[in-house]
Amino acid sequence: MKYPALPDNPTNLYSWIKHLFSLLGRRPNPRLGQVFLVNKRGIEVFSEKVADLLGYPVAEIGTGPGHLTYYVARRVGGVIGVEVDSELAAVAASVLQGTGSSIVLGDGVRFLSYAKISGYYSNTPYSESSRIISASARNNHISRALLGLQLEVAKRVLAVPGSQDYGRLTLLVNRYFRVTEVGRLPREWFYPRPDVHGSIVLLERVREWREGDECFEKLTACLFTGRNKLADKMASKCLGLDRALLTRIAGKRVRELTVVDVDWLLEKAGGCTIQ
User: Fold this and answer.
1) Do 125 and 261 belong to one domain?
2) Contact at 8 Å (CB) between 215 and 266?
3) Which domain holds residue 261?
4) Are 159 and 255 part of one and the same domain?
5) Over the stretch 59-94, which tens digit does the pLDDT of each residue have?
6) Entry pTM
7) Is residue 2 part of a domain?
8) CA 130 → CA 56, 150, 239, distances in Å?
9) Which residues contact residue 30 at a Cβ distance below 8 angstroms, ignoring those fewer than 6 apart?
10) Which of 7, 8, 166, 175 minimizes the number of CB atoms within 10 Å of its CB?
11) Which residues of the chain are modeled with pLDDT < 70?
C-alpha cells in the first residue's frame, strides 16, 4: 500500500492521520492506548523539548504511524522508534525513509528493559504509563526520559507527600528521578480526542536501580492498601515489625511517607520481609 506523504509543515496533521486510517480501513486501537498528537504547536513543542533536553541518539517508545518521529528526526538526525502495532510500524518505516531513523517492531516496555540508550521520549500510551516508568527506573542506562502523560498521571508523579495525588507511583519515580513538568498538551491537540489534557514531564536519573530494589515496590504496594491509615500500623502489618520500634514515622499517615521513610523501613526490617 502507498501511504500518504507527511507535509513538511505539520499544520494539516489531523487531516493526514484521518486519511491514513481511512486507507487502512480501521480506527486507532483503544486497547493499545492509541491517541496521537496532531496539533502543529504540540508537535513543535515536543520536538523542541526532545532536541533541547535529550539530544542524539534518542529512542521513541510508541511511534504510531511515525509522524511525531519524523519531525523529531529532522531536528536530531534520526530516531530509533519502537512500535507494537505491526500495521502502524509499517507506515512509520515508510514515512521515515531518508531521515536516518529505524523502526523496531515490538513491545516498548520490553525494549526499555534491555536497551542501552541514555535517553528516550514517548507520547505515552495512557494505559502503559506506569509500566513505562517502572521499566525506566530498572534500566540504569537510561539517564533521561521525556514523557507525554495524561494530566492525572503527571499530577501523581509530581505530587508532594500528603496530597490527594500522592501514591506508590510518586514514590517510585522520586526514588530514581528528578521530575519536572516542561509543557502542557490540551486534549484538543489529539486524535482521537481523549477525555483529559496531557502534560510533558522530564525525568532525570538521580539514583541507580540496585539488586533487591524490587522490595521497595513490594513494600509500597502493601503500605498503600491503607493510604489513609497510620503508617506505623501499616508498616507493622506489612513487615512484621513492632510498632514501638517505628518512632520515626509515628503519627504519619501512609500518604505522608517519603522515599527516605520507606528506605528506613526496609533497613529496619533487615531485608525483603513483606508479609
Assistant:
1) no
2) yes
3) 214-269
4) no
5) 999 999 999 999 999 999 899 999 999 999 999 999
6) 0.93
7) no
8) 25, 11, 25
9) none
10) 8
11) 275
